[in-house]
Amino acid sequence: MHPTLRADLDRLPELLASARDFATRALAGIGERPVSAAVPAPDPGPLPAAGVGAQGALERFARQWEPGFSGSAGPRYLGFVTGGSTPAALTGDWLTGVYDQNGSSGGGSGADALERETLGWLRELFGLGEAHRGAFVSGATMSNTVGLAVAREWLGERQGVSVSREGAAALGPVHVLSGSPHSSITKALSVLGIGRDRLRPVPLLGGDREAVDVSRLAEALDVLDGHPAVVVANAGTVNTVDFDDLRAIAALKERYDFWLHVDAAFGAFAALSPAHAALVDGLDAADSICVDLHKWLNVPYDAAVQFTRRQDLQVRVFHNESPYLGLPTGTPDFLHLTPENSRRLRALATWFSLTAYGREGHAEIVGRCVALARRLGEGVAAVPGLRLLAPVRLNVVCLTLTEGATPERLGALARAVADSGEAFLTPTVLHGTPALRAAFSNWRTTETDTDRVLDALARAVRELGPAPVADA
């Protein structure tokens, strides 16, 4: 054994304690850490020849890279839809590395049984029935990709071809309909060989809504004259957390032949709020569902789940044909359900968090985030120079400038807020209007944090000044 590796093995308890202490200090200061990176990243260095050992690597990381890491796990990072890591989830994630189980199959380990138990808990959490079967994947993009891959195989089944055998070209033209699809949907269509241009936008409800007009969706399906299609419904759009009427869309199946995929990356968690659970009525009728867990469940990154009613088709797409792996019979191993053969036990962090806090603990996080989003929305409406672009429907605040709302000015506003170190918001565009969005999903965020975000916004607007007057 290499002497440095042997020395690290001999000192392993001490090294782990050192890493624990380092992490404890980092987490203790997360609330005051600059939310956006405060220093530029260093230039890349050469590959080490001999190496400096684990303690030396930790010290080099602390000196060279740690100062440039953002406070994205902290309470005022409101960009994208980003959670943090609850104490239990972090514990589970660390132990995932310790035990280093390959979560692809049973293989003499109980890891797959733990994942199945966790999937059952999530199914119950989101109000899904026993017909849905799932697997852990890396994120919402992969969850949407897996769901649409199963939908693609279903389209082939309806036409008497096996896409997994003959390829996407055997399908002919594919019809994918959606109102406000996330960008990961078109990415998935590209990966799957269906094509980004096969997505047909369906008109939305009027005003500030991002939900699909179900009557117009029916018209679009009617035009297909019985040809099977894929409908992508949205349970929580990224700009305003609008929800398609899932029950009404599912009812269209009585007249039209389509696969219903629901992108509920973070909107599925509305099921935990008594005041908002009706937004996900009809979710159980979906043929496939995407839920991202490193958002509102607050487990570390690289954790999402996908569900489908047609696991038989999922196996047809993803099964691994190899003599040493065996055929997928009965309850299939997870390597036959996702693109990966080798996969870490992503379920463990979720198992820890659900075991530690249960439905009630996670419902409290959801309820608090919704209340804080409303608090920020009310504050924004009172700041001169700012206005809301849509009602605060759940946990996202979409705002813009009252005057001169150009991409350049909104970008400058976002940079000013980020440069303050107080908060981070992401730019967007809603119905042609440049805007910023603040997404509340971190378990640490409090009213005090929300007020600090509002103050940072107000200061940035004042510093930005009035919009320039156009030349006559």
Automatic annotation (TrEMBL):
Keywords: Aminotransferase, Decarboxylase, Lyase, Pyridoxal phosphate, Transferase. GO terms for biological process: carboxylic acid metabolic process. InterPro entries: Aromatic_deC, PyrdxlP-dep_de-COase, PyrdxlP-dep_Trfase, PyrdxlP-dep_Trfase_major, PyrdxlP-dep_Trfase_small, Pyridoxal-P_BS. GO terms for molecular function: aromatic-L-amino-acid decarboxylase activity; pyridoxal phosphate binding; transaminase activity. The modification N6-(pyridoxal phosphate)lysine is found at K295. Its cofactor is pyridoxal 5'-phosphate. It comes from the Bacteria. PROSITE patterns: DDC_GAD_HDC_YDC (PS00392). SUPFAM superfamilies: PLP-dependent transferases (SSF53383). Belongs to the group II decarboxylase family. This is Aspartate aminotransferase family protein.
